[in-house]
Amino acid sequence: AFISTAIITIFKGFDSFLPWKADGFFTNYVALPTFFFLWLGYKLYYRTKMLRPEEVDLTTGLRAIDEEEQRYLEQEAAKGPQTSPGSGQSHELVVDQAGEIEVLGECDPETYPIQKKDLTPEYLRDHVHLRARTTHIASMLRIRDELRRKVDSWFESQAFCHINTPIITGNDAEGAGETFRLEKIEGHHPADAVHTSTPPPPAEFFARPAYLTVSHQLHLEALATSLSRVYTLSPCFRAERSQTSRHLAEFWMLEAEWAFPQNGVLGICDLTENLIKDTIRPVMDSDDFSALWKGGNESRRKAVQDAVTQTSPWARITYTEAIEELQHAADTVKFEFAPQWGHSLQSEHEKWLAEQYVGGPVFVTDYPSQLKPFYMRANDDGRTVACFDLLVPHVGELIGGSVREERIELLEGKMGDIQGSEWYLDLRKFGGAPHAGFGMGFERLLSWISGIDNIRECIPMPRWSGRMLL
Ligand code: 4AD
Ligand code: MG
User: What is the pTM of this model?
Assistant: First the structure.
């Protein structure tokens, strides 16, 4: 204001010297317009300079910046971040008259499948090779990567050793009969033709049946007897035909095993709860996390946030208590399957427990032994095992874990004649130690924290029964 007043006063001084004394002629028609155009020229000149392409230094890839331009950049930086005038975007790319754009990869805007409009998850799954170009899937992939790094540093802080366990295996760890069997394709190798007219019958490549692993637990257990604390984040394969929003044929599981667990099954619950809270909290601050929830269900987002920030522990109830609560609820809630002791909790029961009964994550412990695999440690009551499932709203089961049976006599009885698993008994026979572990579906974790309804959107290229596009 001071400078403008001073300049106008000077202009007015000129006006008073003009012979025809036309009041304000010089100020209004000569000086102020000239002043304005000089200022506009200055602005345009510097904007143009900012974008001059010939200033790129070809050796470093950086543009040479002269002093004037440096000053301009500093001025702009001092103004702080500037928002784009376009709605729903923070930045835009401006190419003015002095700039040039060279199209490196052409794309026909008429036929490009990823148009700028709402595309359904189903449509995007049909274009899985292109879907990472949407903001939503790209954000999910970055969150997935960030979470993996947080998980690694968390386990490092707890003195766990990351293990690359095998994917080809001879066992069906869960005994659920959902394994994919491997088979060598008998090709027409020229060497076969030279030596024999009739090729020998195909032999098992590994001299025994081989499968894609359903879980890395048993191999981790072997390594825990040496390294004490081990974990892996690895792919698992299950030939389940169920078409649900929480089952994939290829998914990633975070699994850990450690020796000398404290406080039985509740100690494992504590460890997994800390793992989730410590790794998710920092991820929630990221822009990608906000992008995933944008336009989503705010109360659901808040519930996740509250769960991972609450200092009090998540609820813990036994399977027997859960069945009692479900049976009470069955008076008013219409369950498709009647809750009954000794029967598996159905997905509707798990969701009721997490969403209505507790309203947040809940550990259900001590399931009947007949519902769980052979490796879980028998409780003294003779009918339940020292295990838990962590149930979370909208997803259901997120983690399964247990204390492992270290008593060889009990284990032998439960294993029956599982062939090729003698090595598993050796772990007890030759100096075993009490140990415990768990497995968490990585896609289910992502689905819960980011409000993505189907885990098919939580993995780059999903596979399920009837579907493997690339
Ligand atoms: O409960 P599950 O079958 O437990 C195991 O495999 C144990 N051996 C793990 C361990 O103790 N090391 O699977 C563990 C978790 C489930 O809670 C679920 O989150 C996830 O793995 N999961 C699946 N995720 C996606 N698609 C599938 N088909 C899944 N099956 C299990
Ligand atoms: Mg389970």
Answer: 0.81
